[in-house]
Specification:
Elements lengths: L4 E4 L5 H14 L3 E5 L5 H12 L4 E5 L4 H9 L4 E3 L5 H9 L3 E3 L1 E2 L2 H10 L4 E3 L2 H13 L8 E4 L7 H7 L3 E4 L10 H19 L1
Helix pairs in contact: 1-2, 1-8, 3-4, 4-5, 6-7, 7-8
Length: 201
């Protein structure tokens, strides 16, 4: 079962990246993002892609330029996530055969991202827009456009997001924050997966 949960490992260290990824995968989370403002992110991406590229999708977040897209593709990433909607980043992502998740907040952002070739939309910051905002935006978008809620998403509100039209969620500190041990991440991931499964049942 592939769950539409993207774990955002902001601040992960390369030496712990593989073990953290393993804990997430064991718990049932197989989409893992390393933001580029983490320590040596390309090293972490490469190590996780080498270890788990068959079992999980490994990607990069906070990708702001086409050059960064090239760097993360070379490191083994299969998807690119941005906090903003930059058409050149989206186009570079698609040229290299990666999946593009640009950040959007308004209907204008959404339609511009789709015109540039986005595969899915990252509604960010989710906690500001909220499920009510997503529901309003969803009403004017094509029904087949995947929207992922990211930013302040916790397991307790997953059902609200899915009811509003989200296809997936991205979670940061709810799954990992710098200093967390593998055991802590594993426990967080199991709890989040349980809440996700209940929300989509």
């Amino acid at each position: 079962m592939t769950r539409n949960i993207m774990s955002i490992l902001r601040g992960v260290e390369p030496d712990q990246a593989v073990s953290i990824a393993g804990a997430l995968i064991d718990a049932g989370i197989t989409i893992i993002e390393v933001p580029l403002n983490s320590p040596d992110p390309l090293v972490s991406i490469r190590r996780m892609a080498d270890a788990y590229g068959v079992q999980a999708r490994i990607g990069a977040g906070t990708v702001l330029t086409p050059d960064q897209v090239s760097d993360v593709a070379a490191a083994g990433a299969t998807f690119v996530v941005s906090p903003n909607m930059e058409p050149e980043v989206i186009r570079a992502t698609k040229r290299l055969g990666l999946t593009a998740y640009p950040g959007v907040m308004t209907p204008s952002d959404c339609f511009s991202a789709l015109a540039a070739g986005a595969d899915a939309l990252k509604l960010f910051p989710g906690e500001v827009v909220g499920p009510a905002g997503l529901k309003a935006i969803r009403a004017v978008l094509p029904s087949d456009v995947p929207i992922w809620a990211v930013g302040g998403v916790s397991g307790a509100v997953l059902s609200d997001w899915f009811a509003a039209g989200a296809q997936g969620v991205g979670a940061g500190s709810a799954l990992f924050k710098p200093g967390d041990t593998v055991e802590v991440v594993a426990a967080k991931a199991r709890a989040f997966v349980k809440q996700y499964d209940e929300a989509v049942a």
